[in-house]
Specification:
Blueprint lengths: L11 E4 L7 E7 L3 E6 L4 E6 L5 E3 L7 E3 L5 E3 L2 E5 L2 E7 L6 E5 L12 H7 L6 H17 L15 H11 L5 E4 L7 H14 L6 E5 L4 H12 L4 E3 L1 H8 L11 E5 H5 L1 H8 L3 E6 L14 H12 E7 L8 H11 L7 H22 L6 H10 L11 H14 L6 E2 L12 E8 L3 H6 L6 H5 L16 H12 L5 E4 L3 H14 L4 E4 L5 H12 L7 E4 L14 E4 L6 H8 L11 E8 L3 H13 L9 H17 L4 H26 L1 H8 L3 H12 L2 H15 L1 E5 L4 E6 L15 E4 L2 H6 L4 E2 L5 H11 L6 E6 L9 E9 L16 E8 L12 E3 L2 H10 L1 H45 L7 H20 L3 E10 L3
Helix pairs in contact: 2-25, 2-27, 3-4, 3-24, 4-5, 11-12, 11-13, 13-23, 20-21, 20-22, 21-22, 29-30
Bound molecules: adenosine-5'-triphosphate.
């Protein structure tokens, strides 16, 4: 005879068949029936006692009890009095000891333990068990790919960028100078590094400071490339929170602002009162520094650099404001190491000797005795006997790269070593000097005045009426037949007066871009220029248009005047000559004959060859010859003199370039490009970035979650919210969200979401399921003809997922690891997979569970202990792997510290602590039961 169940008013019971009713409370009972109220849905039900339709909820020690008011405790003690339980333990919010009487439990209770859910009859559709398993597996594969943060970026996999991003992104507290030449993708590298640091938990708070014309572009690039939503901070934003008295910088984690804004005293003060994990500064060559007069920009960033753990400085032209400033920027990265400019210069000379000596190795040439001695002078470990095989030579090169002075701090790729750039075609346009300018010409004027005659105050704004460059420009606009043209000149006034002329005298669609405009106005202008139809044909930019902006959709560049600084010239050309440019770039160079402009044109064209090619030695040549150049500009009529100078510049630039070619910088370049090493990283990204696999996984998952996926075309799908969506999914719009599983489509179609392991939609769906109770317990029938009717198995998912602070990077060695086991009636793990499963009616499921309850309890225990055994190997591997890899890295860094002072003590210290911490966490890890599915054989 079955024992009579006792119901007491106030007790909490769950319905065995209707999980959605939530937690019921007994309202009344008599000899035959019990009346239960389900407050979550406000429904009352009457059950016959012998029906056994209810399961009593009793919480055990360690479980979470939620009070109807929302606060929670971890149960430490459960006491029963008059048939009612009281649970006691520490409140999670106040840490005070508290009790919850059973009747005051939250109605929306979710029982989390799978076995408890099973016995309480909290059953889900059995397909959810498979969904949970595939989510765990996807999460595991992704975390083990070593490409977290790289996979989901909407970028082409360009090797030098991937190398830098991977190398820096995985470091603890990286502090580096990204100094690739113009347009090689430093912004993208920074985006990838930030993304990895954020996703891996190494960084949470990031501050990006850029010149104001680039704020919007950075905002868009961060969103478009790596789906990071930065908040733009400006006066308006600060003003808006002023009244609240709060520090605006503490309100956001990802902040983007202009450098001039952050320099403001009050703003800087507020930014310094909070901590930053990463500080990113673009166009860092603006941070001018001399020992006696550091610029205010430098001082502001220096203060911030003390607050930030990691720093990324970006500049294409590190020497633009002189070598001292370059030194000072390295000092921002590591003040202890770069304390004296003099010793930095001496050290550089030494490293350049090392790079010279290594040349034969890089060129795969035999080393002479003298060269071996030379190498030994810088690196005592060099053993000539061990240099016979390519592997030994490669190892030595790798060693020497590590020791190269700024190797770990600075990355600089040259365009010359990267293929795929368009041709640059220089069109010289010599023009007769208008008589109005000739009359004004005064050799005593300074160079700037002479080079820009249109700025003479006497001319007011009349110069476009006679300046022959204007008529030539109008003709060019006709000749290029509607193609876009970018014009850059030094001054805003020139750009504005040119624009006024075009407006009043022509019908050319034009726009301007200069420092007198607000950021919003500038972005509007850039957008108007970028718009293909009905957009501006020409954009007239002052010098602020020459930095950072992306104008590669345009292939005609007019340099209305020329800057004296060769780095600035390269920056100007770099707006068009950058990744993504599909055509040859036409550079038009109007200048006046027998005029300082003609001298400057010849200096660049014949002296430095800086129009058709990048000139990496431009600033060195300028520095060596600048007083001669200035003298020559003052006397353009002395043709013999300036032609001599041009020849000198040409010779010097050839010599300096030859120096570079001889290997002066080849170690740095090799270190910056990653050489052959990067292929393996790219392979891993491609491997983890399997569009077909991801599509299969997500299609099933979305379907289970109630999201409708429609095919738009071969590559693009539209996700729509279904009527019975289980969870809200961020990024899913009411009108539908376009998604793709293909990187190539995602990089081309900006509005389309890229669904990869990194994607927010994917991780959100997985997290939503794995943190919910759905699928934790279920029952199904199978049709196994070779097994007896009524045979049963208990499938379990055990998960090894110790928890620790993200900064320790546990996932790199032991990501949450699932294991599926199938326990049979003999309590053995059986290697069996069920092709088709069938649902079981709730009442029948409940009866089966009740009938098998003793066996099931034993099967759960056995399953967990078998999971523990199986995962032991994985745990030991993780432990060994972690120890070996950290020991290796520590040893390598310690060894290097003796030769290369750019290894910071704190990096080594972190690794030592990381190892100790992870050893403990991994050793103590035990698997927990994530879900169970009872499988009963019921052949048809
Ligand atoms: N991997 C990539 N995939 C797709 N587009 C890219 C990639 N790398 C760079 N680009 C595009 O090429 C252009 C140049 O890249 P980016 O702005 O990062 O270069 P940069 O080195 O910062 O330039 P600058 O020296 O002018 O500041 C941008 O339009 C960028 O979107």
């Amino acid at each position: 005879m079955s024992q009579q169940i006792e119901y007491v008013v106030g007790q909490r019971w769950l319905s065995n068949s209707e999980v959605d009713l939530g937690l019921g409370v007994v309202m009344a009972e008599d000899i035959r029936s019990v009346l239960v109220l389900f407050p979550a849905v406000n429904e009352e039900r009457n059950y016959a006692k012998k029906q056994n339709a209810l399961a009593r909820l009793i919480l055990s020690d360690g479980e979470t009890a939620t009070h109807v008011d929302g606060w929670t405790i971890t149960v430490e003690k459960a006491t029963e009095q008059d048939g009612l339980y009281t649970y006691s333990g520490k409140r999670h919010d106040t840490e005070e000891y508290a009790s919850i009487v059973e009747v005051a439990l939250d109605h929306h209770v979710k029982v989390h333990q799978p076995e408890k859910r099973l016995f309480l009859g909290q059953l889900d559709d059995p397909k959810w068990f498979d969904t949970r398993l595939s989510c765990w597996q996807q999460q595991y594969d992704f975390a083990s790919s070593d490409a977290v943060g790289l996979i989901g970026a909407r970028v082409e996999l360009i090797p030098h960028q991937i190398h830098i991003a991977h190398e820096v992104g995985k470091r603890y507290a990286p502090r580096v100078l990204l100094a690739d030449e113009v347009g090689l993708g430093k912004t993208i590298e920074a985006a990838l590094i930030i993304h990895q640091q954020l996703l891996s938990g190494r960084a949470k708070r990031v501050l990006i400071c850029v010149p104001s014309p680039l704020v919007h572009q950075w905002l868009v690039e961060m969103l478009r490339r790596v789906n990071l939503h930065f908040s733009v901070f400006d006066e308006e934003r600060i003003e808006a929170v002023k009244e609240s008295g709060e520090n605006p910088f503490s309100q956001e984690q990802l902040v983007l602002c202009s450098q001039s804004f952050i320099e403001e005293e009050e703003v800087l003060h507020q930014a310094l009162s909070v901590d930053w994990d990463m500080l990113v500064v673009d166009e860092a060559h603006h941070l001018k520094w001399t020992p006696d007069a550091p610029s205010s920009a430098y001082l502001a960033i220096e203060k911030l650099s003390h607050k930030a753990t990691s720093i990324l400085l970006l500049t294409a032209t590190p020497d633009q404001l002189g070598h001292e400033s370059h030194f000072a920027r390295l000092r921002l990265l590591d003040p202890a190491r770069f304390h004296s400019y003099q010793s930095f210069v001496e050290e550089e000379a030494k490293y350049s000797e090392l790079a010279q000596a290594v040349n034969p190795l890089l060129n795969d040439e035999p080393l002479s005795d003298e060269e071996i001695t030379q190498l030994q002078a810088v690196s005592a470990d060099v053993d000539p006997v061990n240099l016979d095989t390519p592997e030994e030579r490669q190892k030595l090169v790798a060693d020497l790269i590590d020791r190269h002075g700024t190797g770990r701090l600075m990355f600089r790729n040259r365009r010359a070593s990267i293929s795929g750039f368009p041709k640059r075609i220089a069109h010289s346009v010599p023009l007769k000097l208008p008589k109005e300018y000739a009359l004004l010409h005064d050799p005593a004027d300074d160079i700037a005045t002479q080079l820009h005659p249109e700025r003479s105050a006497i001319l007011d704004d009349k110069w476009p009426l006679f300046d022959s460059r204007i008529q030539w420009l109008i003709k060019l606009l006709e000749d290029v037949q509607g193609d876009k043209v970018l014009l850059i000149c030094a001054y805003a006034s020139t750009a504005m007066q040119l624009a006024e002329y075009l407006r009043s005298k022509t019908s050319v669609r034009h726009t301007v871009f200069h420092e007198g405009m607000s950021i919003v106005e500038r972005d509007k202008a850039a957008h108007f220029f970028a718009t293909s139809e009905q957009g501006a044909q020409i954009m007239l930019c002052s010098e602020i248009g020459s930095e950072g902006r992306n104008f590669q959709f345009c292939r005609h560049l007019v340099l209305f005047d020329l800057p004296l600084n060769p780095d600035l010239l390269e920056q100007r050309i770099g707006r068009l000559d950058r990744i993504g440019q599909m055509h040859d770039v036409n550079i038009y160079l109007p200048y006046f004959e027998n005029h300082p402009q003609a001298v400057l044109f010849n200096w660049y064209h014949y002296g430095l060859n800086a129009f058709t090619h990048t000139c990496p030695v431009g600033s060195d040549v300028y520095e060596a010859l600048h007083s001669d150049l200035h003298a020559a500009l003052q006397s353009p009529e002395d043709m013999e003199n300036w032609q001599d100078l041009v020849e000198q510049a040409n010779n010097l630039s050839k010599t300096l370039k030859a120096d570079i070619e001889r290997g002066r910088d080849r170690l740095l370049e090799l270190n910056s490009s990653g050489g052959d090493k990067v292929e393996a990283v790219i392979d891993r990204i491609i491997g983890a970035d399997n569009a077909v696999k991801m599509m299969k996984f997500m299609s099933r998952l979305l379907d289970s979650l109630g999201v409708i996926q429609e095919e738009k075309d071969d590559q693009v799908f539209i996700l729509r919210q279904g009527e019975s969506m289980m969870f809200p999914i961020p990024g899913l719009h009411e009108e539908g969200t376009e998604v793709t599983y293909k990187r190539s489509v995602a990089t081309q179609l900006e509005h389309v979401h890229y669904l990869s392991g990194d994607s927010e939609i994917v991780t959100h769906c997985i997290d939503a399921i794995l943190t919910d109770v759905v699928g934790k317990s279920s029952v199904c029938f199978v049709n196994q003809v070779d097994a007896p009717v009524g045979a049963f198995w208990l499938e379990i998912i055990g998960v090894l997922a110790p928890v620790t602070d993200a900064k320790w990077q546990l996932y790199r060695y032991l990501p949450a690891t699932p294991i599926r086991l199938c326990i049979n009636a003999k309590y053995e793990a059986e290697d069996i997979h069920f092709e088709s499963i069938f649902k079981v009616k709730p009442k029948m499921a409940q009866q089966l569970i009740t009938a098998l309850s003793e066996q099931l309890k034993t099967a759960v225990d056995k399953g967990l202990s078998l999971a523990n055994e199986s995962l032991l190997g994985i745990k030991n591997d993780a432990l060994n792997n972690m120890q070996a890899s950290i020991d290796n890295e520590v040893e390598r860094l310690k060894h290097l510290q003796a030769h290369n002072p750019s290894i910071r003590d704190e990096e080594v210290q972190f690794l030592v602590e990381q190892k100790q911490h992870l050893m403990q966490v991994i050793s103590e890890a035990t698997p927990y039961l994530d879900s169970v599915r009872l499988v009963i054989n019921n052949p048809k």
